[in-house]
Structure formats: structure tokens, C-alpha cells
């Protein structure tokens, strides 16, 4: 089957979960196969309402994909391949024993997102993809200190007697609710992010 026909007939059903957090924070997203990894970065940022204020990378089959310009001036053990040059259709999920890969955001806090390829399903022309079809819980606040820091944050956030309770509530803002997930708002953010990214990384032409 030609690649273009394959792209149009099927979409990739994925479950994306932030690791080392309980209860889990996850999103189930239908992704078109012609989506490149830079666009997938924009989708993940929007799906979890991250602010894209830190570095990121994809790790797939032991290789690293992302924005190579961020490696300039630093010595790295491995090469970062250009994310816009790789599309989801380039990964043959049928022959993978473990059809999953990793997206890491913020190398300091190290938010590891496990992207599990659940299935390839028929494309529904009535739906606009990418499309979030499920999820649970709000993502952690930026710069909270990774999964361990978030666990400490939640302990103080829920305990009115905790010495850090008021400070954390003020820092996170009144609108923060760790259990909140709005699928309609999420899909609006995804559509907006893809439109603004123009088929690649938004920061390359907005900075």
C-alpha cells in the first residue's frame, strides 16, 4: 500500500502517561501517521498544558530526536536527529515487541512521558486529528521538582496544617486542581498548537 494511502486510511491510537506519578496522569490521543515528531512535541505540550519553556527529546529505539540546535556549544554522548524529518509512519509498530517510546520534557525535572502505541485504527473522516479521546488528572506545575517534588507538593497542597500549604497554594494559583481534566479544552489547545506550529517547531519562527 502506498504511504499516502496508508496515512489517510489509518490513525495511531496512543496512550501517553507521565511516569513515576500515582495516580497516573495520562492522555489517550489519536494521531495521524503523517505527523512529524516536532508536531508531536507540540501535541504533547498542548495535551498536558505544558508551557514549552524547557528542553525536550524523543528517545526511540535508542536514538534521540529533537531540535539539534540546542546541542550547540555542549558536548553530548549521542547525536540528536532532526525531529521534523521523521514521521510516525516511519516507525513500523507491527514488528515491535514493545511498541512504545519516550518523550522527555525539562531535563531538570525530567518529566518522562511513555508513549504507548495501542493500535492502528481506521481513519474517521468525521473527526479531526490529532484528537484527544480520554485522559485523567492535571499535569504537575512547571518547575515543581520532578515526580518526587510533585509528591511533596501534593502532600502540602492537600494538608491545611502543613507549613508549606499556603505557600504552595499561592504559588500554584487558584485555578490549579490536580484532579481536573477538561477534554474539550485540551482539544482546543491541541488544534491551536498545531495551527501555530506550521508543520514544525513553533519556537523557530516565534522567537
Helix content: 25-40%
The run of helices and strands is HEEHEEEEEEHHHH
Helical element count?
6
Q: CATH homologous superfamily of the largest domain? A: MM3350-like
Q: Which runs of at least 5 residues are low in confidence (pLDDT < 50)?
A: none
First-last Cα distance: 40 Å
Judging by the overall fold, what is the CATH architecture of the largest domain? Roll
Mean pLDDT: 90
CATH topology label of the largest domain: Structural Genomics Hypothetical 15.5 Kd Protein In mrcA-pckA Intergenic Region, Chain A
Number of strands: 8
Q: Radius of gyration from the CA trace? A: 18 Å
The share of residues in extended strands comes to 25-35%
- Structural domain tally: 2
Q: Structural class, please?
A: alpha+beta
Written overview of the protein:
The protein folds into two domains: 3-137 and 181-206, Structural Genomics Hypothetical 15.5 Kd Protein In mrcA-pckA Intergenic Region, Chain A; 139-180, no CATH class. It has an eight-stranded mixed sheet with strand order 5-4-3-6-7-1-2-8. The mean pLDDT is 90. A hairpin with a 5-residue loop joins strand 6 (100-105) and strand 7. Helix 3 (146-158) crosses helix 4. It has 207 residues and is of the alpha+beta class. The protein is globular. The chain has helices spanning 3-9, 37-47, 146-158, 165-172, 183-197, 203-206; strands spanning 10-18, 25-32, 56-60, 63-66, 80-82, 100-105, 111-122, 131-136.
